[in-house]
Write a structure and sequence with these properties.
Layout: E1 11-12, E2 15-16, E3 21-26, H1 33-38, H2 44-54, E4 68-73, E5 81-87, E6 92-97, E7 103-108, E8 111-121, H3 126-132, H4 137-146, E9 161-171, E10 175-189, E11 192-202, E12 207-211, E13 231-234, E14 241-242, E15 248-249, E16 255-258, E17 264-266, E18 271-279, E19 283-289, E20 294-304, E21 311-312, E22 317-321, E23 331-338, E24 341-343, H5 358-377
Antiparallel strand pairs: 1-2, 3-4, 4-5, 5-6, 6-7, 8-9, 9-10, 10-11, 11-12, 13-16, 14-15, 16-23, 17-22, 18-19, 18-21, 19-20, 20-22, 20-23, 23-24
């Protein structure tokens, strides 16, 4: 009897790859969507029609150098591309099916989440500690975001330490795909432990926030600084004397945060942009009205990222560090108004965010109980 060979299906991206000749490559400098298809026997006129049909769902001009792509080509002697798959990142991809009626859609690879825990003791910087512990650099950024209102991460002390419970993403259960959610953290700064637990406090909007062990929101009305991982190079000082001006008193009504050119500048609170312009010694700057009491201003930008009248949220990038106007080095001069008067933001009793609503607190305390026990059981 003849032996019948059964070929197992090999599904990926929603297609049985056994039905095609497969080409895997990455976008190189000079590559274009059209050039890739042209080299794989798709006629120029057909490429033009495809681009027109998919322009509202996939911008072929935005493929990035270094991103992978997969071509599913016909198995005949021509080897014409049937399907173009572009990987936006490790998880998300776009599919352009060129057969019959051209179609395009976005999809995700199947991802599983594995819960993990980690700990670390600061010796010099948070990022170095993460590297020593072989943890994702994204964890540094996420922790800085969680504690943006309570800890100045540029001024950590040797001996500060943390414990964290988090999830990590895996594709097909084996391929690491980056950091998932940080579920719970204990960060001990200057001997004081500060807990943070992830919880959806607004179930209608689905907004996740971080709260402490007493259900207080870690967010504040204002960020401590408009730049992450920056240092204060000059503080608010109404009696400052400058040698260049004959040691005369020239008040400094802002707080300068030094950082490399191009570093993102963040809105420290929700508000409306009232100015986004260039003027004299201020250089390029943005001013935001937060409410009837508070306003903030951000000077010497390289470029603004917002326009007058635009609503911004806390943490939005409103521009980038530069050296426009009167400045001796790259920094942002952060100015803070209260009731129309410039004040030192570090000496203000700024409002806190609302704590978790009482109707959610029973659920919250039940949610964090095992997480807190898990954190407390991690030894240094």
């Amino acid at each position: 009897m003849p032996i019948i060979e059964v070929v197992k299906a090999n599904f990926e991206y929603g297609y049985d790859l056994n039905e095609f000749e497969i080409i895997r490559d990455t976008i190189r400098s000079g590559d274009t969507f059209g050039a890739i298809l042209d080299a794989n026997h798709v006629p120029q006129g057909e490429i033009y029609e495809v681009v027109l049909k998919i322009k509202d769902s996939f911008d072929v001009r935005r493929v990035k150098v270094g991103n992978p792509y997969v071509l599913l080509n016909s198995k005949d002697s021509i080897g014409k591309t049937q399907v173009f798959i572009y990987e936006k990142n490790k998880v998300d991809f776009a599919v352009i099916d060129l057969r019959d009626c051209v179609s395009t859609y976005n999809d995700k690879k199947p991802v599983t989440f594995v819960e993990k825990s980690a700990r670390g003791v600061i010796t010099s910087s948070l990022s170095q500690t993460m590297e020593e512990q072989h943890l994702s650099p994204n964890m540094t950024d996420q922790l800085a975001t969680i504690y943006a209102w309570t800890i100045d991460f540029f001024r950590l002390q040797p001996g500060d330490r943390f414990k964290v419970v988090y999830s990590e993403k895996y594709i097909n259960d084996t391929i690491p795909a980056g950091l998932g959610e940080i579920k719970a953290v204990m960060f001990e700064h200057r001997g004081k432990p500060i807990y943070a637990f992830s919880f959806i406090g607004d179930s209608i909007m689905g907004i996740t926030d971080y709260y402490d062990e007493e259900a207080n929101n870690l967010r504040r009305a204002f960020l401590k600084a408009p730049v992450k991982f920056s240092r204060i190079s000059s503080r608010y000082n109404l009696k400052r004397r400058i040698k260049f001006y004959g040691n005369r008193v020239r008040p400094h009504k802002g707080t300068d945060f030094a950082a490399p050119i191009g570093t993102p500048i963040l809105a420290t609170a929700d508000g409306v942009v009232t100015k986004s312009e260039r003027r004299g010694g201020n250089g390029k700057y943005v001013k935001i009205r937060h409410n009837g009491t508070y306003e903030t201003q951000y000077l010497h930008m390289k470029t603004q990222n917002v326009k007058k009248g635009q609503h911004v949220r806390q943490g939005d990038v409103i521009g980038w560090i530069g050296m426009t106007g009167n400045t001796g080095g790259p920094h942002v001069c952060y100015r803070f108004w209260k009731n129309g008067k410039q004040v030192d933001p570090f000496k203000q009793d700024l409002p806190l965010s609302e704590p978790l609503h009482k109707k959610h607190q029973d659920s919250y305390f039940a949610h964090i109980m095992p997480l807190k026990k898990q954190l407390d059981s991690i030894s240094f």
